[in-house]
């Protein structure tokens, strides 16, 4: 069941159910229906309930949506930035079809935009939870982005430090951002495949990556409506895929999955290899930067590897194939170049350090990387993602092979 149906259902319920039928004028909004704090609306499928809730010892009241079978799991909050501090809040349907949340003194605390309901009736402002049918991603025509933001704490739904977003510089990739930028990154999304995410085929839901002229997004649908599942970004920046198992939520996977998922865990020009010692290894053609030259801005940037001398461009005349890795960050993408043109183009430019095909089935599409190679990792044994990359190395590193 998609969110489209879902909102229409709520709107429908507001209009047609036998909730108190009144018409009250508040400023310019004329009210036809409302629910008060204490009352709730149940979706037609009986899955979700909309109403007011509170958390912890605070007096803050929020309009939210929760599972009917599990009211403790709030999946969406309307006024997360503007709590109501008493129990006099009221949700009304205005005559132009918008939902409006009003305080005791009839101030507008939150409202939907007409475009929200009429043009694209899905959740444009998700909270920390991605429900079936919700979109995570971009309206490429308007530049509008839908993304998740964690709660500040278990008792405070106001926006926390972490967000799950789709980064569309170059080929799209998932990122979890925190106070200091990227915390976790998937590899680029190539065809139906995404590197670096612990996704696997499952019998519960179908994940979809949609890239059309006007829209680019991720969404999912359960195979049947007995399956209750969603993704949630928790307050410390971990994304969990939860599935309801009879009496409780169980985590199917979480991301970051292991330390190699932490952004640039190993520093530049390294490969992060979980379960191997050392966990960080300089890529072929690179050597560890002397310890006393390590950058001091935190562990993630410290273990930088630098080019082996001689590091002049002319010596770097060949490419080495590294297999089954998460491709580095900051890709440069050209959809029309084939892999041969890609290689030739990379070779021409001294700052090009690597290239890869962007087409899993061998068609055209070229990815290139300039400068340091950031956030590469090997695929852990239990997953099967990973792509080939061609690293530009001195001829001396190639042995008998020149690819
Ligand atoms: C309504 O639209 C305005 C301007 O586009 C935006 O700032 C605001 O957040 C939107 N509110 C909702 C609830 O959609
Ligand atoms: C729905 O999917 C679940 C999980 O795959 C399965 O166990 C169940 O039998 C399915 N129910 C129906 C009615 O297809
Ligand atoms: C978020 O999930 C991670 C991984 O399961 C867990 O270690 C962490 O404690 C969770 N954070 C919170 C605030 O629950
Ligand atoms: C992609 O490559 C083709 C062929 O080399 C070139 O004509 C085109 O300008 C490139 N596009 C971009 C965006 O650089
Ligand atoms: C090499 O690539 C970089 C990054 O795209 C670009 O700024 C530079 O102009 C290129 N140099 C040459 C010689 O093509």
Automatic annotation (TrEMBL):
Q: Which Pfam family is one of those matched by this entry? A: B_lectin
> What SMART domains does UniProt report for this protein, alphabetically?
B_lectin, PAN_AP
Does Magnesium show up as a keyword for this record? no
Bulb-type lectin domain location is: 26-155
At the top level, the lineage of the source is Eukaryota
UniProt keywords, alphabetically:
Disulfide bond, Glycoprotein, Signal
Which BP terms in the Gene Ontology apply to this protein?
A: recognition of pollen
Domain Apple, chain residue ranges per copy: 313-379
State what this protein does. Answer: Involved in sporophytic self-incompatibility system (the inability of flowering plants to achieve self-fertilization).
Query: What's the name of the protein?
Result: Bulb-type lectin domain-containing protein
């Amino acid at each position: 069941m998609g969110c489209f149906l879902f909102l229409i259902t709520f709107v429908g319920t507001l209009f047609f159910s036998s909730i108190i039928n009144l018409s009250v004028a508040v400023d310019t909004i004329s009210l036809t229906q409302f629910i008060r704090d204490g009352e709730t609306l149940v979706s037609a499928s009986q899955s979700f309930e909309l109403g007011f809730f509170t958390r912890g010892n605070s007096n803050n009241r929020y309009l939210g949506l929760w599972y009917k079978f599990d009211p403790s799991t709030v999946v969406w909050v309307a006024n997360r930035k503007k709590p109501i501090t008493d129990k006099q809040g009221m949700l009304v349907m205005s005559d132009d079809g918008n939902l409006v949340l009003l305080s005791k003194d009839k101030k507008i605390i939150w409202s939907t935009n007409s475009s929200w309901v009429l043009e694209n009736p899905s959740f444009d402002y998700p909270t920390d939870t991605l429900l079936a049918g919700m979109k995570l991603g971009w309206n490429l025509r308007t530049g509008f982005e839908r993304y998740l933001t964690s709660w500040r704490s278990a008792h405070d739904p106001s926006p926390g430090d972490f967000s799950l977003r789709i980064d569309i510089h170059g080929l799209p990739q998932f990122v979890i951002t925190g106070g200091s930028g990227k915390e976790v990154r998937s590899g680029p999304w190539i065809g139906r495949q995404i590197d670096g995410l612990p996704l696997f085929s499952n019998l519960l839901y179908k994940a979809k990556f949609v890239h059309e002229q006007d829209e680019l997004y991720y969404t999912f649908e359960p195979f049947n409506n007995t399956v209750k599942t969603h993704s949630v970004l928790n307050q410390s920046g971990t994304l969990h895929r939860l599935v309801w198992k009879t009496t409780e939520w169980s985590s199917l996977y979480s991301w970051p999955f292991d330390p190699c998922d932490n952004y640039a865990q190993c520093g530049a020009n390294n490969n992060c290899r979980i379960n191997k010692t050392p966990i960080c290894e300089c890529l072929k053609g690179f050597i560890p930067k002397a310890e006393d030259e390590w950058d001091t801005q935190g562990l993630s940037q410290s273990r930088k590897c630098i080019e082996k001398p001689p590091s002049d461009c002319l010596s770097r005349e060949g490419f080495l194939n590294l297999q089954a890795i998460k491709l580095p960050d900051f890709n440069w993408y050209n959809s029309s170049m084939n892999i041969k043109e890609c290689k030739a183009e990379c070779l021409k430019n001294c700052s090009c350090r690597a290239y890869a095909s962007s087409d899993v089935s061998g068609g055209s599409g070229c990815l290139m990387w300039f400068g340091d190679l950031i956030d590469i990792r090997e695929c852990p044994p239990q997953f099967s993602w990973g792509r080939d990359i061609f690293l530009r190395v001195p001829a001396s590193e190639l042995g008998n092979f020149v690819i």
